[in-house]
């Protein structure tokens, strides 16, 4: 028998495959996961090639230890997607393929348990009758377990353990009493076919524009990129639901992928999908995001990989999920910067969604009230089909009126403000409270105050590890760096001069929450930001309070600005928007306009008149005037004209080389060497290389950072040059880390 060798992709910075001898009984196949020795460790890799020869002498090759034969090989299409991402974003194949898998799947010791038939508990009639009286009054965990059993046909053993630490013993006891039954469900097969879906007559009636959009999407049986441009509240989600229903009616075994930008948007989408597709079998709708426990994420990935999951809802990491029967991709809020990964493989999930749809020959829907200028430009050129929803779905609902509160004028007229809240805004908040309506106050800055300073000597509290100020968090009585996490107690006096009158400057959401409690007496004020939603499930609970009407004024950051359907909100107040008007980042105005349009769209969704009040010192700024008209089209066209004149994306293509060193001089020296090497490459004359510069926040966690910007009118020419540059960059020394980022969003 001739020798068999396999070439394996490993999660390693070297952009190469590693040869191993294959001596095991099951035949190897590309896409299978294997455990191999690498250095002094055993690691999991993916077979990419099976061959009868190797350039490495056979006696020097190590052998594959084990193969994950219980998991079907990753399909050719999935491996092609990973290879494209690796090539385009200038990383090794293993750096893409392996991190795309759940952590539990990269641990060979867990393979058998992951793919074993799952144990589930089913509540019997005797238990449904006996359990309510058998539970102690204060046993909240037991009650959650009983409610979960009653709410669904079966409850997975792993989910039960997440609800109650002693769930196994408790359920065994209930089983002995005849209250629950233990069943085994084989989740590794995709043979289950869904029954008929909800009758069309029971679905919400679509507007004419919505129906045209649904018809266009469902009629597409090949690669067809759609840009669904709908004003806030126009019913884009309903278009997605009808398109999914049409797909699953026509092809019951088809799979669909729905991407959302943030984890906190998944609960409402999941609830809508489960309600609409209640007839689908258990496990046919799954979520994928970093907030899931590793076991749950692995089970959901396996359900998608085996074809059992029909609808996969997730954040950006879900774009790399294995979906063998993928037939439709939806990217909601496609403009959102959260779709761009900022660490490791710096990919754009939206752009990979377009590529994946083209690769598979399927439709892809990009939805937004404020599309990215890149997507808008593609639609203007006819490469994407634009579908427009120009009116709100609720017949009596209209877009909110936008009012600019001129802070300079308020000051000139001697009108008092209350710690940053203008008189007109406070009056409007009180009016909504009297009418029993809800208000939303938006400030994209968390904490109590961004600066703590001394008036006597000018001292400002800074982070000892970063070139940034620390943020005052008053409820926690601490100073915290939002870049590295460093914390300290609030000093009682200035550490430089001893002055006890140190004071906070500026405002964060905590300070606004405190101010509103006194400025609007009797109002129930709730703050939602990254600090108030740290615990798992806390964001969902807080949003539930808002929807239930238990909140009068909601204060928050960008977490509350998009996607949420607040039926009772009629007033939106915006604080401190001016800071983005004069940013050095050429995308700042685009992001600000999108952010303000999105947060404005939370008002007046149920038919009650909505109003948006923006506090500004620049009421004549063109951006605010376009916002007042809800004129995204005009804003996009004028901004694109500016970008064309300035030779900025989407009219040119960019890449960054970032370097991190122990000193700034080391990082800049590395980039200077890299630029000199680049100049010698073939085709380098077609690429503009700018001078190396420090990042805005130059030091983070005692590491100094700098960057080198490259720009080219041809995407292909830039990619060719970057590929040729990589080997030379690996030969350079002098920095801790370096990375190439293609299509950067933050420059």
UniProtKB/TrEMBL annotation:
Gene Ontology BP, a term: double-strand break repair
Cofactor, free-text remark: Binds 2 zinc ions per subunit.
Alphabetically ordered keywords of this record: ATP-binding, DNA replication, DNA-binding, Helicase, Hydrolase, Isomerase, Metal-binding, Nucleotide-binding, Primosome, Zinc
SUPFAM superfamilies registered for this protein in UniProt: P-loop containing nucleoside triphosphate hydrolases
InterPro entries reported for this sequence: DEAD/DEAH_box_helicase_dom, Helicase_ATP-bd, Helicase_C-like, P-loop_NTPase, PriA, PriA_3primeBD, PriA_3primeBD_sf, PriA_C
Protein name as it appears in the record: Replication restart protein PriA
Record-listed E.C. numbers: 5.6.2.4
Helicase ATP-binding domain segment(s): 217-389
Binding site for Zn(2+) 2: 463, 466, 481, 484
PANTHER family according to UniProt: PRIMOSOMAL PROTEIN N (PTHR30580:SF0)
Coiled coil: none
PROSITE patterns named in the record: HELICASE_ATP_BIND_1 (PS51192)
Family of the protein in this entry: Belongs to the helicase family. PriA subfamily.
Catalytic activity: Couples ATP hydrolysis with the unwinding of duplex DNA by translocating in the 3'-5' direction; ATP + H2O = ADP + phosphate + H(+)
Gene3D superfamilies: P-loop containing nucleotide triphosphate hydrolases, PriA, 3(prime) DNA-binding domain
